[in-house]
């Protein structure tokens, strides 16, 4: 049975083991009776077993190296991930309320002042809009009949002036809407805090 195992291992020898060994002195205890020449040299049983064991160990070492390489390929990234620390600090609700009230006391005067300024600007814009609307109404109510003293140039000038006032009114309305939106936003911010 031992001979069968040895012979089956001889068949399974890899390319690294060479049965054609060159002539050299052996360190094994076998005598020179096995020596048959360089071409026909056969490995002693114990030597071939050593070679096969060495090949098995080399294959296992190679597989372990591949496994280790695959397992540690992204080691720098993992090291960086593990290095980062997250610190969570738990505070009680009283502390949160205290800081919230301090923040409200600090911000509320500035927000109130901004709201007052926005309301004043809004009132000014409403007055300007009303004045422009009155001018437009007056201009529309006037007949555009060419009078004896009026020339075509004067009519064109009046038309340009009317167009300019209309554009100015539209711009003021847009500014008014923007200020109203800002006032609403500031009021909602104050109510939230």
Automatic annotation (TrEMBL):
GO BP annotations, alphabetical order: attachment of spindle microtubules to kinetochore
Alphabetic keyword roster: Centromere, Chromosome, Coiled coil, Cytoplasm, Cytoskeleton, Kinetochore, Nucleus
Range of residues in the leader sequence: none
Coiled-coil ranges from the UniProt annotation: 115-189
Broad class of where this protein is predominantly found: nucleus
InterPro entries with a match to the protein in the record: DASH_Spc19
Pfam families: DASH_Spc19
One CC-aspect GO term: DASH complex
Compartmental location: Chromosome, Centromere, Kinetochore; Cytoplasm, Cytoskeleton, Spindle; Nucleus
Domain of life (superkingdom): Eukaryota
Family: Belongs to the DASH complex SPC19 family.
Protein's UniProt name: DASH complex subunit SPC19
Organism of derivation: Marasmius oreades (fairy-ring Marasmius)
């Amino acid at each position: 049975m031992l001979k069968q195992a040895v012979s089956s291992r001889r068949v399974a020898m890899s390319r690294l083991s060479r049965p054609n060994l060159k002539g050299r002195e052996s360190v094994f205890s076998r005598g020179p009776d096995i020596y048959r020449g360089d071409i026909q040299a056969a490995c002693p049983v114990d030597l071939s077993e050593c070679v096969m064991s060495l090949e098995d160990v080399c294959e296992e070492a190679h597989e372990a190296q591949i496994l280790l390489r695959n397992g540690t390929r992204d080691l720098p990234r993992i090291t960086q991930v593990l290095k980062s620390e997250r610190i969570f600090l738990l505070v009680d609700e009283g502390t949160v309320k205290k800081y919230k009230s301090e923040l409200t006391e600090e911000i509320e005067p500035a927000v109130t002042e901004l709201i007052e300024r926005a309301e004043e600007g809004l009132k000014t814009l409403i007055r300007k809009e009303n004045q422009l609307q009155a001018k437009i109404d007056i201009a529309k109510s006037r007949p555009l009949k060419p009078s004896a003293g009026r020339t075509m140039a004067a009519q064109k000038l009046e038309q340009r002036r009317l167009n300019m006032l209309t554009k100015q009114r539209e711009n003021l309305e847009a500014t008014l809407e923007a200020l109203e939106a800002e006032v609403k936003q500031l009021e909602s911010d104050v109510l939230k805090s």
